[in-house]
Amino acid sequence: MRHRTFAPDCNQPLDGLGYEAGRPFSGWQSRHLETLIGGWLQLDPPNLELATLALEELTERREDLNARMKFARLELAPIPWLGAARAAVLGTLLPQLANERKGTGGRGKVYVILRGGYTETSQWYGAYVGSTSRPIASRFKEHREGGARSARGLPVHGIEPLYSLFLPLNPIGSSRAKMVEWETRLHECLAPIIPKVTGDVAF
Fold first, then answer.
1. Sequential DSSP letters for the chain
2. Structural domain for 118, as ranges
3. % of the chain with per-residue pLDDT over 90
4. What is the pTM of this model?
5. Is residue 71 in a domain?
6. Residue 44: what pLDDT?
7. Would 5 be classed as within a structural domain?
8. Based on the structure, what is the number of domains in the chain?
9. Which UniProt keywords apply (predicted)?
10. pLDDT recorded at residue 169
């Protein structure tokens, strides 16, 4: 896979998809998934998250060859650590949040952005973890536009929000302290799995 910079647009979550499920595409037909993977990969930016989740489902069925060829033809790689990262979030952080969420509203959210631009030894992709009270699309746009509210590397190498790593957790409350706490928890949950995780961590 070669390094490239994609358009600064924000992919939206897929309506009706259960991002909190272990296999979100388990009820979808294989041929339909193959067709969708081709379409998702040709977007700019490509929707690598959905394409990878669909590929993981086809791999479970041992029907993944054609889908892998679609990635190869477009010189794109699936996200190799996405399945393990999702398992950690759903198995560790979501149960921790269950009791805290009772009676907790607000607009505070954590988020994860897929970041490219790394070397092959880092499996090409890393992740940036942040928190915000603003819409995710607005915060993503700020990261891609650069400036004081961006983060190092994201204006060039930011690709897309990884909804399956944060939608099941949100909202996390409105206070800045709670947002920083959960940003740190998410960062520490993902760091042992994803080769490169950046963002602020409270110690």
1. -------S--PPPPTT--TTSSSTTTTS-HHHHHHHHHHHHTSSS--HHHHHHHHHHHHHTT--HHHHHHHHHTT----TTHHHHHHHIIIIIHHHHHHHHTT--SS-EEEEEEE----GGGTS-EEEEEEESS-HHHHHHHHHH-STTS-TTHHHHEEEE-GGGTGGG----SSHHHHHHHHHHHHHHHTTTSS-EES----
2. 82-198
3. 73
4. 0.93
5. no
6. 95
7. no
8. 1
9. Coiled coil
10. 93
